[in-house]
UniProtKB/TrEMBL annotation:
It comes from Culex pipiens (House mosquito). The lineage of its organism: Eukaryota, Metazoa, Ecdysozoa, Arthropoda, Hexapoda. One of its GO terms (biological process) is cholesterol homeostasis. InterPro entries: NPC1_N (IPR032190). One of its GO terms (cellular component) is plasma membrane. Residues 1-24 form the signal peptide. Pfam families: NPC1_N. This is Niemann-Pick C1 protein. Residues 44-230 form the Niemann-Pick C1 N-terminal domain. Keywords: Signal. One of its GO terms (molecular function) is cholesterol binding.
Amino acid sequence: MASCRRALAFTSVLVLTILKLSLAQTTIADDTGGGTAPARTGDGTCVWYGVCNVAGSPSLQTSQYCPYNGTARPVDDRTRDLLQVWCKHLLVDDAVTCCDAQQVDVLNQNVKLAANFLARCPSCMANLVRHMCDFTCSPQQSKFMEIKATEMNTDTKKEYITNIDLHITGQYMNGTYDSCSAVSSPSTGRRALDLMCGSWGASKCSARKWFTYMGTTEGNPYVPFQINYIEHD
C-alpha cells in the first residue's frame, strides 16, 4: 500500500512525461551509419496500422503489426468502443489513432493479463496502461518510435514488424517501476515482479531490467516483436 501511495504523486505528472516522451529531442542513427541525427520534428506520423501476422502456438498467439508510414486514421465505432475500456484519454474530438480495432482488442487482452498481477495497486495499473495505450495507438508514433526490422508472411504476402526502437524518458521508466515494484500477486502471495522481471525476479529487478524484459522476445512468449527501449533524460 505504501507503494500505491507513493505512486499517486507520480500519476499527477504522468501526462507531462508522456508528452515529453513524444516530443523529446532523441537521436537516431542516420542512413550513413555511425552518425546521429535529431529526432523527427513537425507533425508525427504512424509507424504501424493493423495486424499482418499472428505468431506463436495455438494456446499463446501474439499479433505482429503492419508497417505504415502515414497519418493517423479516424477512429471508427468499433475501435472507439474498445478504446473506452482502457484508453479513454485518446478519445478527443475528431480522434485519430495509429491502431485499428483488432490492435485495440489485442491491447485490451494484454492489459487484462497484466491486471492479474498488478490490479491490487490502481496507480501502478494506471501508469502501465497509459504507456501501453500511447505506445499502441498514439497518432505521433514516429516522434518516439522507429521500425528496425520487418519480415514477410509468405502465405499472405503481408509485411509485418519484428523489431522496433522505442525512445522513452528515464523519469517515466523509474516512476512506473517505483509504482509497481512492491505490488504482490494475490494468486501467489509473491511480489508481482518475481513473475514479470524474468530471471532477475523482484529482488534483482530495476526499472531498466523490467522494461528490457517487457520488450525482449527471447524467453518471453508474450512479447510479439522485439522492443528496444532507449532511455533519455
